[in-house]
Every structure is written in structure tokens, then in C-alpha cells.
Amino acid sequence: MKNMTWQDIIRLHVHCPSREGIGVVALPQGQVPESLLILADRMNVALDSAFPVEIDPSWCGARALPGLRGSRGNRVRLGGALAGKLSPVALESVLAHELAHLKCRHWELLLLGTVLAALGGLAVGLAVDVATWIRLLLGGGVLVLAAAALSWVAEYEADSVAARYVGRDKVAMMLEELKNNHFRRVPELTHPTDALRLHRLRRIRIPRLPVP
Ligand SMILES: [Zn+2]
After folding, report:
1. Distances (CA, A) of 193 to 86, 113, 199
2. Distance 193 CA to ligand 1 centre (A)
3. N or C end of the chain, less CB within 10 A?
4. pLDDT digits over 141-160, tens only?
5. What is the residue extent of each domain of the chain?
6. What is the dihedral of CA 149, 153, 158, 159, to 10 degrees?
7. d(C-alpha 128, C-alpha 108), whole Å
8. Distance 132 CA to ligand 1 centre (A)
């Protein structure tokens, strides 16, 4: 089973008529392509030993799910609708990007950043001598802008860390394919557009990994 490709797995869980309408499928380690486990090992990311991947057949997205103390370990949730649109190379980069979020512990950055931004928003709201609704607007604005900025930083960093491990060309191919599929055409609070990510990836320096 370890030699199954993502395309095989997506066919099995997404395109199989008998499985229509099913929810999230947790894949045991033995049903995950070995390439993911090798990549996670290279990136020094410990995935859940029982169910490292979840497939959400109808979802068009991918997400890193950090392990919480006392519950399951780190997992990657992959949307079947997204995986079905991408080439194997682009899919490998999607997984590298999600592993990079886990490697960089971005959920901690976002959590801490959001708490600090909330305090900053509160301070701004209290510091200005204006009507209450303007205080709330200013305080909320600081919180939303700071959280969005942190999320964008995390996305850009995940692209560059992924490029270190799978190569800039492969990550660029992923972003090209996402762009061609009109995945994210307009900027969102949590993510820059695919075009912005591609533009940045092509300009930055990707540090070489030391030869093992
Ligand atoms: Zn991301």
C-alpha cells in the first residue's frame, strides 16, 4: 500500500462511486505514500504515527493540523477536490508547504500574535479620546490587520521552507497550477493570492540545504 501514489489514493477515496458522500477519511500510516513519510523525515516533522493524513473528499484545500498535547499528533488534511486538480509534482509541493507550517510551528506564532494584537487593539481603543464605536472600530482594525499580516508571513515562509526541501521549481509549479485553477485570485485575510506568492517565490533567495 505504501507504494500507492496520491492519485491512486484520491481515485480510491474521491472518485469511487460507492464512497460518495463520505466525510473525512483518516489514512493509516500504511496507506500513505512513502514519499510523504520520507519528506516529513527530511523536514524533521513528526507526523501522527497512527493516522498522519486525513482526506476530505469534497474539500478544495489543504491544511496542517498541529498535534495537541494528550490528543493526536501532527496531521495533514488534504482536500480531494484540490488534489484531483493538481499534478503529482504540484501535490508534493502542497504537502511540503503544509509540513513547513508544522515545522515552523506557525500555529503558535498565529496564536501568540493574535493575543498580542488583541491587547494592542485594546490599548489603541483605550488610548484615543473618541466615540465608543470609533474605539471599537480602531481596536478591531488593529487586531484584524495584525492577524492578517502574521498569516501572510506564515504563508510566505511555508513556501520558502517547502522550496528548500523540494526545490523552487516544484513549488513554483504548484503555485502556477493553483493560479491556473483560479484557486485564490483575490487576497484574503489569511492568504495572499497565488500570483503574489509566485511573484515572491521567484524573487527570494532559497538557502541551500547542507549535503547530508
Ligand atoms: Zn499555508
Report:
1. 17, 22, 10
2. 12
3. C
4. 777 888 888 999 999 999 99
5. 6-85, 106-203
6. 100
7. 30
8. 36
